[in-house]
Amino acid sequence: MSNAATPDPDNHRWQFFRSGGFDQVRLDSAADLRHLRHLDQKLWAVLACPVEGLEFDTRTLRLIDTSGEGRVGAAEVLDAVDWACGRLADPQILFTPGDELPLDGIATGHEDGERLLATARQVLAVLGKPQAQAVTVADLADPARLFDPRHPNGDGIVPAEMTDDPVLAEAVATIAGALGPAVDRSGQPGIDRARLDTFLADGRVVLDWRTQATQAGSAALPLGGDTAAAAAALDAVHAKVEDWFTRCRLAGFDACATGVLNPNESAYAGLAAQTLAADDAGIAALPLARVAADAALPLRAGLNPAWEERIAQLRERVVAPLLGPQDTLTAAQWQDLSARLAAWRQWNGARPATPLTDLPSDRLQALMEPSIAARLQALIERDLGAVTAAAHIDALERLVRLRRDLATLLRNFVNLADFYTPGRRAIFQAGTLYLDQRSCELCLHVADMGRHAALAPLSGTFLVYCQCTRQGEAPITIVAAMTGGDADDMMVPGRNGIFYDRQGRDWHASVTKIVANPISVRQAFWLPYKRIGKMVSDQIQKFATAQDKAVESRAAAGLADADKKATAPPTAAGGPQPFDIARFAGIFAAIGLALGALGTALAAVVSGFLTLPAWKMPLVVAGIVLLISGPSMLLAWFKLRQRNLGPLLDANGWAVNIRARINIPFGDALTHVASLPPGARRSLTDPYADKPMGWGRWAVAGLALLALWWWLKGPGAG
Question: Are residues 203 and 183 in the same domain?
């Protein structure tokens, strides 16, 4: 459908209000809603918003998002408005807070309304309150209370309770248990068409795989159903038996190796000092039996105690069934046993990767009967055919949720009334961040940090990104817009604060990223002086550090030079070098010239200022201050006027259609700086306050400046 506005045959008279620097349409009446489709969408504040990440019921947004794209567009909002207005007796109820939909509020002049009313009465009867005259969101929140598992409900999922046939019920339970259940609208586990198809396909593969082992001439099951247990018994000792026969072959190769391949006395000496058990690791590490050339492995007596039980399992499960009763096992017999079970290993390696392999063959074969599969398919088709009943309940839920939430959505979509109205919060405001003696109301969830960090700086707002954590909750990322106070202590990430979400829960917030922009004109006024002060402070610190290092270097050099002079022979003159007074006189003369030039310049400024009339002096001071702070304030003023909410929302997947300004007065309302409460009493006595400079010091400093000025401009100047 086209998103362009259609001509309005009624010529509805719209009302607008101005907030945030742009005209916004008022939505106050049912007539406004009925004619909303005729309003030019260029006048809408927003054209799309995400379904997730908002302080708004996600279920409601999903019911409006009929395309299933995860975004609600303007066309879907219009469809929801038209649908709700057509099914409410008086759409004015949408502007009334509450989640109750009175039964007499459902329009019954058409077929859809009649069905919705009948469905509402049926729901109330199922819930045990047939006399109720209103249905609420809570009544429809749990579908398991509304749907009987014995009856079809249109979701295509068949629980075992839907059939009276015990064979089919058992089949449903078995398939759901093997492949994992689908949850029916009644809340019961069941199967759907996809699971039935998977069961039939995988079941055929499993049966074919098992047929390969049981067919005539197959060596995959030499012991029938006991083959798997026999293979497990052989595998449990395979490495140890191979080790023992290899040792025996080495002893046959060289008789000198026999003593080395058997444990020596030192091995037993280490074990003798311990409290032993048959399964000790030290004992298990010893050979299975005494190693000798061409020896046979004993299966009863003379075995390593740690391996007696496992060798007994080998004797009972493998040797006796395949070779007959044996007390010993030769190397050739061992190789024969391993070869007989190799076919089973190859067959078992081709085991289908499906849980159905755990079902017994007879049970699986019975479930694969075509008649059972056909009857299960018929049950699923019967449930899908009952989609109407479920659709009516879904429609009723949609209407009840729109009755509660639609007006709120419109106040954050068609206009931004909730954002610009004092005392309200928009659905994109996630909570309040307390940081650095201020509270920030404009906080948004951040789902994609990369996308948000790329777009959000275009808002012209000072932004603080925080990682928020809370015990038992997954971490979240927020961005807070600071629109008041200053940023002197905010320039270094890592500061901590507290974030309160819309449910009132507190989160530990840690600053991870800062996007610096002007916060206020007042901050811009002091910014040049702070920069100058910082520059002077940095230079003084650098100078002090350099001088400290220089003094340390000179001291070290002096000590080294003194040591050299003490050990060196006397000079030709026989004494230390003379003091060069001319050299130091030149240094002091240069310092005096520098101080004189500085004093002359200062005196010229002071004398010129003092010669001005008294009424001009404040103007000169104001001019100097304006010259220093004016450019910074002017630049900040322009930037503050350009602050825009749009990029912050666009970075979260919104489609903002207007330039939503955050001007200086509105910014002050979004960020509150700490202040004493009204009527609070304040004591100015601070026992740890810095000591003020006494009047005597101020007087001495003043006299020194006057004396310098008089000396430079008075008789001494001549």
Answer: yes
